[in-house]
């Protein structure tokens, strides 16, 4: 795939996360998808191989918890089989989220993800995001 096709794949993935489009998520996420937290790069024992269906169910469940959840891509940079996305997650939980009962407060958390693509699917994602930021925003 070309660099522009890889970037388009990530845009499609993020939009499917935002809408809970399970069919598209099944198409763009490879079986045997692996996710790393940036702190664990280079530590194979810390890698999490995630079952695609479990991952998709988690995205759908998040939309039930945070109905107005939005992942927003601010920038994409691509080279070879990798795409780096700079973005933000926003939303207002409707039920308990990260241990905080709903209180009308919203979160706005930035993130950087590095995706590796093979054969038109995402096979790996390295995540840099601090979930405690959302928790603090909701609790304050």
Write the layout of secondary structure elements.
Elements: H1 3-19, H2 22-28, E1 29-37, E2 48-49, H3 52-65, E3 70-79, E4 82-91, E5 107-118, E6 121-128, H4 131-139
Structure explained in plain terms:
- With 140 residues, this protein is of the alpha+beta class.
- The chain has one domain (3-139): Roll (Nuclear Transport Factor 2, Chain: A).
- Helix content is 34%, strand content 36%.
- The chain contains 4 helices and 6 strands, in the order ααββαββββα.
- It has helices at 3-19, 22-28, 52-65, 131-139; strands at residues 29-37, 48-49, 70-79, 82-91, 107-118, 121-128.
- It has a 6-stranded mixed sheet with strand order 2-1-6-5-4-3.
- Helix 1 (3-19) runs antiparallel to helix 2 (22-28).
- The longest helix is centred in the N-terminal third of the chain and has 17 residues, at 3-19.
- The protein is globular, with a radius of gyration of 15 Å.
- The termini are far apart.
- The model has no long low-confidence stretch (mean pLDDT 90).
Structural key phrases:
globular; 36% strand; 34% helix; six-stranded mixed sheet; single chain; 140 residues; 4 helices; Nuclear Transport Factor 2, Chain: A; alpha+beta
